[in-house]
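Hi Y.,

Following your request, here is the sequence exactly as I used it, all 547 residues.
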Amino acid sequence: MRLAVETSELELIAKAFQAISKETSYEGLAKALLKAALGYSDAGRGAVVLSESGELLTKADASFPRERAKFFVSEPPASEFRLPADLSERVFTRREIVLKDDGWEGSALIDSAECRRGRIAQLCLPLIHRDQTVGVLYLESERKETFAPRYVSVISMLASQAAVSFESVQLFEALRETNLWMVKGQQIGRMGSYRWNTRTLLSRASRECYRLFDIDFDINPVPFEVFKSRVHPDDFPALEEALAEVVSTKSPFNHEYRVVHRDGTTLHVVAVGQFDVGPTGDIELEGIISDITDRKAAEQALMDARAELARAVRLASLGELAGSIIHEINQPLTGVIMSAEACHRWLERSPVEASEARKSAQRVIEQGRRASNVVDGLRSLVRGAQLRFTDVQINDAIEEILLLLKRDLERAGVTLSTALDRSIPTIEGDRVQLQQVVLNLVRNAIDAMASVTGKPRVLSLSTNVSYEGVAVVIADTGVGIASASRDRLFDALYTTKRDGLGLGLSICRKIIAVHGGRLWVEENTPNGARFTFTLPLRQSAPISANH
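Below is the corresponding structure, written out as tokens. Let me know if you'd prefer a different format.
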């Protein structure tokens, strides 16, 4: 019989130890310790006060309010835990296990029960971890035999186990907090982490990755077919090819593609990663997938705005050109009509005034030639326009345009090479008009290399100070310009492009000329074209466009 009782008691103690040791939170540890102590000792009341660090309770005084503790649990529920001064000194300062007989008025549990008469037995044990008091276990009973030496010994072991488990709780709490920060950070940044096993084709990922791909959280690991079903069909071949290449070369991975949710929502994502050896020894691709939908929308809006602006500029240029032609050619056409009418009248007279008719016909010829010269010699789209001259740092103006055209260069597969002379002083000029020249010349260079295959597409842009002033050189490795076209390249309405208007280079030369500079084109070695324009270092006064 005694053996059975002892076996049952050992089982009870073992379960208590297991319940305490498996806790991973401060609250759970406090509750498990109190439950085990009350259950084993059969005490009527008790409480556990637990802090995150020993510093809090080590400095505690006799009155220890609940809000100063990390966790305070009691049975029955009490509003406050207040140790008498003598108990506080012995437990907190001297770290003693105290067993005391006292009246009900000495209870540390305030409002734990109605005011009663008689005596109570009190047991108070410090929870010591790394030489610091991290908590206290307090028990009360109306029977002295409740806290017999063998019961106190077991309860002390339970308290020691709780103190040992305290370190595990600290680690779990720190891990839980770190994980919470990581999850929050991924949610805010709209990015998720992943590991893809290149042998099994199974993936493990963070919750944010599951959200980005609209995959149920209970699918773990994620089969490649589930991942494939979320990739846009038009984007998967390129993604599969990119994955195959990085797997074979073990090179860093970087690829953009679209993800389609089950409700039809489409996201643009970019995946980056590098190879690592996984827990099983397999090669795994580890990285981050970011939602760039908003960025792509902003880029598209910028491209649309630029396209609309370019279209508006072209329409405005055509309008200006039409207005200039009308203005310039209106007078000679009026003269032609008047002279022809006069000639007609001289011929209808009797007798015919042949001499006067010849004079009128001659004037028709002169006015016709004048109109022809106007059409052939028209160079300016805006007559009498006044430019806005200010101090311009030409390198800064060029870099702004290159930043604007970054995506165009990337899409065209063009490598940009710059050599900007930082010693160039500021010049006087219209910043917007000069940037329009650079924009037009760079775009022309990109178009000139569109058909180039089998060799690098390189756009070189440099600045320097020459004897003429500041020189800006834009060179490409395109198909070049035929010698027959080079002489007429800057003529208005002349173009070598199938869909060109023949206005861009004419406008550019006009703008550079208004600034007192020159614009010309040469062959680039070994292939392509090189456009150069110069600008004087200083303008004495703004120059009219019809200068």
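The mean pLDDT is 78.

Thanks again,
Q.
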